[in-house]
Structures are given as C-alpha cells and as structure tokens.
Amino acid sequence: MNGLRAGILLLLTLAALVYAPTLPPALERTNTLLLIPTLAWTCGQYLVWYRRRELPEWLPLTNAIVDVTAVTGIIAGYAIAESGTLALRSPIFMMYFVVLAARPVASSVRKAAVVAALVLVEYATLFAWLLWTDRINPMVDPVAAVSLGRLSYLDEGAKLMLLAVAGGIAIYATAWVERLVIESATESAERQRVATRLVQAQLDTLRLQLSPHFLFNALNSAVALIATAPRAAEKMLAAISEFLRMVLHSSAEPEVTVDHELVLLNHYIDIQRVRYRDKLVVTFDVDDALRQALVPSLLLQPLVENSIRHGISPRASGGHVLVRIVTRDDMLYIDVVDDGIGPSARRSREKPRGTGLGLANTATRLIHLYGDRHTFETGPAEKSGFAVRLSLPLVFASRAPDADIAQLEEMPA
C-alpha cells in the first residue's frame, strides 16, 4: 500500500512539474510545500521500517490522516494563492476518493470509519472556512453558477453527500474484507487442526499395528518350540510378556529417544535368542552422543525383526545383524544390515506370503512424520545379505530419558 501511495504521489508531482510553466508562482509554491513533504514521508518509511517483520500499528491510520490532510491542505493552499472557486473545482478533490478506496485493504473497520469521518469533516470545515473568509460566494441556482463560472450550494452539497456515501461504502467494504479474512483464517486453522489430528490418528494406528504384528510372529515362534523345547518356549513367553509390558507402559508420543529404542530392541533380541541361541548375533555401532536423539517409537524392532525373519531364519547356520546409528551434516543415519539370504531370495520367499508389514509400516510412518526431510532405502548389502538405510533430521530430546527408562525396567511384570 505504501508503494501505491508513493506511485500516486510521484504522478501528482510529475503532473505539477508538467504544468509548472503555466501555473502562477503561488500555486507552484503550494504544490512544492505540500507534495514534497508528503512524498518524503512516504519514501522515508522504506528506510525506517522496510526491514522490520511488522509495521507499527499506528502507521496505516497515520498515513491515511496525512493523505487526507495533504489533500485538504492543497485545496486550502489553492484558495489562498488564487481563489476559492479554483480550489474547490480542482481535480485534487478526487484524491479523497482514492484514500477511501484503499481502506478495505489497509485498515480495520474502526480505522476506516475514522478516515471516512475525517474526510467529511475536513472538507465541510474547508468549505465553511472559505465561506466565512468570503473566498467563495456560492449561488443557489446551479445552472446560473455554471454559466457564470461560480460555485453553487447544490454542487458542494452533492460533493459532501458523495464523500459520505463513499465513506459508508469504504466502511462496509472494509467490514466485508475483514470478515472474509477472519473466516478464511478460521477455516484454514480448522483445516490444519483436522489435518494434524488425521496425521496423528494415522501415526497412532500404524504404531499400534506393530504390537499385534510382533505378537503374532513371536507367539508363532513360541508355539513352534513347545513340542521340541518346552523350557525354551516358556522362557520365550516370559520374555514376550516383559517386552509387551514395556511397550504398553512406554510413552504414546510418536517419537522417543534412541536410548529408549535400544532398551526395547534388546528385550526383543533376548526373545529371539531363546529360539536361535548362538545362531543369532546382533551387534551395535551407536555413537553415545546420539542416545538422546529422537526417533520414531518402535522404529528399530520391526527393522531387526525383518532381518531375522526374512534374512537370518532361512539360513541353517544363522547370521549376523548390525545396527548402526551415526550422524553427519545434522542428520541421523540408521542402518540395519544383515548377512542373510539377500533380496533376491527374499522376494521369492515373500511373494506367496504378501508384502511384509514391518518395512511398509515404517516407510509410511516416516513419510507422515518427516515428509521430504528423510530418506528410506532398502536393498542388497555391500557383501551379502540385506540392508535398510534411513536418515532423519537430528533432533535431541529436551530432557534425558534415563530416569524414565529405569522406571520402565523396574516396573513389576
């Protein structure tokens, strides 16, 4: 809006310069005394407030008052320099309507009402002052006034009425725009709340899917041991109970610390060692400085389960799973790599059984949580086996989770 004001003032200044040779010196001085300070005030605002994020609240109303008063001042200056008739017939009168037209996008309803009232009061006061100082002598007959080059009361009354109507329209339009903006902002905020609730509900659903998924696979393993190794099956069921207790008592937040995830993962690995014994080796390469970094809850267990179930389990000799967590360039990198049967053999085994829930679920959760700020890749490992590699924004928890983890581990089963 200030740029538009500056443009209009520059056009008025240019017009004054073009007509300067034909204007009396007194009118030239009037234009100079009023247009130059107003233009300087307008351009000076860029130097003072252009780099600020928010403008002063008083500035829009002040600008409108300056504009209205400048128009009134020019008309009054013309009346003093030449004649009241010339002043009131000057096209500069139309600038009042320009100021009022800008109200819907530059003011609140209250400020628009103040500006509309100011326009009407200033012009009425100017007309009264010209009458009182005998600078004008309006005629009652408007037709005779036109033929004689004078003013009429009817014409000036019509101007006041037009200013009043224009002010009323400006107030109404400002109220309409203000209501539209408020409704739009309210709807946008509501849509954002609904979208946030939807994403949270989807995350909760995905997270809660993991527990039954794990429980189904773990119980199947326990059932398989009952006939051949009942003591091992009993030990596995006890470990499953401990793991589920920790899951149920853990935070429902979508993100937890790396430390928290490692505690849960170790409980899961204890369960699998009951079945695989020495055939399963899981090693960790975790930077201690990253133990308070935030990751999605139940992130590591499905990835390690995927490696054990689809990579290590089909091999008679078992295998090794590496969990690596490092950081580079303000990103957290997590790799889960196994030396199992590899992706080609996996595909042939998984085809009749459908897509595994663990990887698909994890990929969907990461999209919901991080959007384009993450990567998730699966494929063959460098030598043999299968690798899951992902990166997340590196964010640390606001408080250390050690106490919470200790409390979880000390809860009675």
Map the helices and strands.
Layout: H1 2-19, H2 25-49, H3 59-81, H4 84-88, H5 95-101, H6 103-106, H7 109-132, H8 142-148, H9 153-226, H10 230-249, E1 255-257, H11 258-276, E2 280-286, E3 294-296, H12 300-312, E4 319-328, E5 331-338, H13 342-350, H14 357-370, E6 375-380, E7 386-393, H15 402-410
Structure description:
With 413 residues, the protein is an alpha+beta fold. The chain has two domains: 2-190, no CATH class; 229-410, Heat Shock Protein 90, CATH 3.30.565. Helix content is 66%, strand content 11%. It has 15 helices and seven strands. The strands form two sheets. The chain has a five-stranded mixed sheet with strand order 2-4-5-7-6. It has a two-stranded antiparallel ribbon with strand order 1-3. The longest helix is centred in the middle third of the chain and has 74 residues, at 153-226.
Beta-strand level of the residues, as a percent range? 5-15%
Structural class: alpha+beta
The shape, in one word, is rod-shaped
* Count of separate DSSP helical elements: 15
Low-confidence stretches: 351-355, 401-405, 407-413
What is the domain total for the residues?
Answer: 2
Instruction: Please give the largest β-sheet.
Output: 5 strands, mixed
- Count of strand segments: 7
Radius of gyration from the CA trace? 39 Å
Describe the strand arrangement of the main beta sheet, using strand numbers. 2-4-5-7-6
Helix content: 55-70%
Calculate the terminal CA-CA distance, rounded to whole Å: 68 Å
Series of H and E elements? HHHHHHHHHHEHEEHEEHHEEH
Query: What is the average per-residue confidence, as pLDDT, rounded to a whole number?
Result: 81
